Amino acid sequence: MPPLELLFQQALNGLMLGVMYALIAVGFTLFFGVLDVIHFSHGDIYMLGAFAGLSVLTGLAAAGAGTPAVALPVAFAASIVITGLIGVAAERVCVKPLARSSPLMTLLATLSLGLVIRESVLIFYPRGADPKPFPWLLPQGAFDVGGVVIRYDNLAILAIGLAAMVAVDRIINRTRMGAAIRAVAQDPEAAQMMGVNLDRTVDATFFLGSGLAAVAGILSGLYYSEIHFIMGVTGGVIGFSAAAIGGLGNVYGAILGGLLFGLVQTMAAALIPRGSEFRDVVAFAVVLLFLVARPSGILGAKSVERV
Amino acid sequence: MILVWAAEAVVLVLVILGILAESPLALAGTAAAGLAALVLVRALPRLRAALAGAFAGHPTAALAGGAVCALALPFALRTSPYWTFVATLALLYVVIGQGLNLQIGTAGLINLAGAAFAGLGAYTVGLLTVSAGWPAWLAFLAGPVVAVVVGTLLFVPILTTRGHYLALVTIAFVFIFNVLMNNLEFTGGPQGIKNIPTLRLFGYSFTTAPTVLGIALPAHANFYFAAVALAAFATGVIRRLHDSWLGVALNTLRDDEIAAKCCGISIARAKLTAFCVGNFFIGLGGAFYAVMVGFVSPPDFDFGYSLIMLSVIIIGGVDSIPGVVLGACLLVPLPERFRFLHEYRLLLYGVVILVMLLYRPQGLWPAAVRRYR
Asked: How far is residue A16's CA from residue A20's CA, in Å, rounded to a whole number?
């Protein structure tokens, strides 16, 4: 059994990972709630968010505006807008045209769109095959609480992630657009009868979800200090798993699922011999257990089919 | 009957020309000829009707002609062992694609772990022969069995859950498979397993170059002929299953699970059967790959290959058995032909799937409408 400090340390790391996963998972769950689709290219949208953020940051640094206080907010804002628009475009290209065909078709289409995005970054981004170093912009240094080292940059990532989640909660529960999203998620036809513009609501949902993925992408760049064109694959699978564990369609479930996934991963790394290599295996085993034991997720409503 | 064979001969000649044409000019000429033939068939309704009638009227002759063409190919390609290898690979994708199509197309079970199941077959062969010293044939047969068993153990719990969960878990499984193969010691890690012994038939090794009718063929021709047999076997078995009650039941439960249940179909049993049979053929393809190449390593079985297998089905036509053959024969050799595209290969696969799904979701050779008599 590892010492208690190590466990706390790992729990802290798990929380960090969990916040990023949760941000991706919220996108999955929003799309599922509104359109009943699994948007399999969402992971690659997250990767695009990281690359957009990095491009903005390098551009700013070249223009001489590289101070963190200026560069970071600009990078976040720009990346959210760019990635959000790409997310809307992805929905227009390969979700909307297939709305009337079987769910299999949307799944396959979004899956191949993800492949196209990934390969495009690999081929067309300058030296896209290499991992890209991400600038260190967060305050360095750390303090110590009873043997647990808490780094300032980690705290900053946690704070940004939590702020994004609070923002989502506010948008969904306090704004007109949020009300429209909730209405469509509950019943698209009834919502339209009440004067909700379906297309605009769907666009807003995809913008919101993809923007959150962009935040997660930049955060992961700041955390790992490098990004890679392939990161969207694992990011997407984990995000979807987290959303499924939490209960597809439930935003709080997605957040819970993301945090749980991060904790399981880091605890597996701490408790199992050579755990850091096999942490994904353990995490997906947990997903499998969840799907068997509680297929509708932690917070998901149990769906009953009447025949 | 003459018409059927003439058409097949034209296709064979075009294929051979397409493969052997090295200079861009010759290649363009062949492509133009192929295109002209296609346009001719499409533009002349009389010719089209005659061809369709001939193929429908003489199915046995059509099959025999196809078999002759398939067996004749290595003789035309004897100067280029590489293309014999590519043709064999295409046939392996037929085997894998038929298995996957039974799962995805017929039963609607979205299995995105095709690469992992092929990898299970291949790694089983490698481990059993190199580490455990089994005879090659026994290991070769054990490969698909292991794929089936692992698939059954891991996926039975979720086979009956609805929706996208199977897709999720199969994606996760590809990644787990790759992590395990990369990090476990007994699988050789990233180096993989080398020197997998090849198959021998009555003391005759598959790697010796054969001489048939006095013509020396490249060494891969043995594997090519074996793959023709394997592809024919897979296609035949899957066709029989597809035309049987199982196929009808699977189509029903794919389209409406509740209705299928009401008709007395055991959902769990039907899905499990489709999943196991499919994995058997996918594992068989992987095992054959292992004995042919003699070397397996994790990157040969990553998620990208699952997507290539998927594109074979979507190009050919979901649930269409001849479509899988067409899809594999188009999608595997074409990127090899255009070598300069190689870097863009996966990108092209993605674009092709997307375009097909959006504009021709039924595929190039759509599944025939079931006729009940």
From this structure: 7
Strand partners, B215: B212
Q: Is A272 on the interface with B (CB under 8 A)?
A: no
Question: What values do phi and psi take at B212, rounded to 5?
Answer: -115, 125
Span B290-307, pLDDT tens digits: 988 888 888 888 888 898
Task: Choose, out of A112, A125, A290, the residue to mutate when testing the contact with B (most B CBs < 10 Å).
Answer: A112
Contact yes or no for A237 and B108 at CB 8 A: no
Closest chain B residue to the Cα of A114, Cα to Cα: B350
Nearest-angstrom CA–CA distance, B178 and B194 = 17
Contacts of A107 in chain B (CB under 8 A): 110, 164, 167
Q: Which residues of A touch B346 (CB under 8 A)?
A: 115, 119
Query: What values do phi and psi take at A170, rounded to 5?
Result: -65, -45
Give B22-29's long-range contacts (Cβ < 8 A, gap of 24+): B27/B337
Q: Could you give the count of Cα atoms lying within 13 Å of B256 in the half-sphere of its Cβ?
A: 7
Contacts of residue B84, defined as CB under 8 A and 6 or more positions apart, other chains included, come to B74, B77, B217, B218, B220, B221, B224
* pLDDT-based confidence at residue B57 (cuts at 50, 70, 90): confident
B interface residues, A as partner, C-beta within 8 Å: 104, 108, 110, 112, 154, 157-158, 161, 163-165, 167-169, 171-173, 175-176, 179-180, 183, 258, 262, 303-304, 307, 310-311, 314, 318, 343-344, 346-347, 349-351, 353-354, 357-358, 361
Tell me the pLDDT band of B202, cut-offs 50, 70 and 90: low
Task: Select the residue from A29, A101, A119 to test the B interface by mutation, using most B Cβ atoms within 10 A.
Answer: A119
Query: What is the rounded end-to-end Cα distance, in angstroms, of chain A?
Result: 52
User: In angstroms, rounded to a whole number, what is the distance separating the alpha carbons of residues A291 and A241?
Assistant: 10
How near does any CA of chain B get to the CA of A286, in Å?
11
In A36-151, alpha helices (H): 42-62, 68-94, 103-124
Query: Higher confidence at residue A165 or residue B15?
Result: A165
Residues 6+ apart with CB under 8 A from B285: B92, B93, B95, B96, B99, B118, B121
| B301 DSSP 8-state letter | G
Evaluate if pTM is beyond 0.95: no
CB contact under 8 A, A233 and B303: yes
| Separation of alpha carbons A68 and A156, rounded Å | 12
CA count, 13 A, side-chain hemisphere, A102: 16
The DSSP result for B214-275, as a single string, is TEE--THHHHHHHHHHHHHHHHHHHHHHHHSHHHHHHHHHHH-HHHHHHTT--HHHHHHHHH
Contact criterion met (CB < 8 Å) for B112 and A111: yes
Q: Give the N- to C-terminal CA distance of chain B in Å, as an integer.
A: 27
- Helices then strands, each counted (H, E), chain A: 11, 4
Cα angle at B147 between B145 and B152, to 5 degrees? 95
Query: Model confidence over B75-101: pLDDT tens digits?
Result: 777 777 788 888 899 999 999 999 999
Q: At residue B157, does pLDDT exceed 80?
A: no
| B contact test, residue of A288, A294, A296, A305 with most B CBs within 10 A | A288
Q: How confident is the prediction for chain A on average, in pLDDT?
A: 86
A143 three-class SS: strand
Q: List pLDDT tens digits, range B239-289.
A: 999 988 888 899 888 888 888 888 888 888 889 999 999 999 999 999 999
